[in-house]
Design goal:
The chain is of the alpha/beta class. It is built from eleven helices and nine strands.
Amino acid sequence: MKYKDYIGVFDSGVGGINVLKELIRVLPNENYIYYGDSLHAPYGNKTKQEIIKYSLNIVNDLVKNGVKAIVIACNTATSAAASEIRKQYPKIPIIGIEPAIKPAVIENPRKKILVLATKATIEFEKFHTLRNSLNAQNRVIPVICEGLAEAIENNKDPKDLLKKYLLPYKNKISIVVLGCTHYPFVKKEIKSILGNVRFYDGAYGTALNLKRQLSNKNLLNISNQKGVILFESSNHTKSLYKQFLIQ
């Protein structure tokens, strides 16, 4: 099979590269196949059923080609489709990503926390369940950043969008959760508006979860050689993904 013993990683586009970087840092000897669904990006403005359909199409192909695990490197796809993917592939480790609200809340008691995310991530039940479980309804402020992931995906200047969403919180917020895997690419621009904020995202926790699940199933690559990284795309932007990986 084409990707036998590879780890399949997918996102709606370039955002999941931020997750892939952490996976490589934590598990450098593993082989990865990264699939970006840029043709349908962004997922954040799609319906739940559309996101499930796109995600399952990708996973079906990756599993058919022999991957040993799947990483959903997209907060929106995790919220919408992770349970359905796990239902269809119960024997394969399926690792999702979610906004790092829990560590942000625990490590910053009494502080207000801004969560930047797509419309779908904020509106799906998973976000509200997590926030309520932490008793942080009054401290966790969700901000739907419509158009931001698309701007990043298409290499457009995000400053006007960021000003629109962030200026109301200038000098009021010091903790920001990046709830979309595209958003770490614009940390510098966010800081230029909000100041020297502290960022949280779920990439490192996702990498640790992958390592734990692979270890539990004796699937870790025990080779001392650096792993191979391959790229696939729904609209022929593989070279773009490679550029983002080395940024």
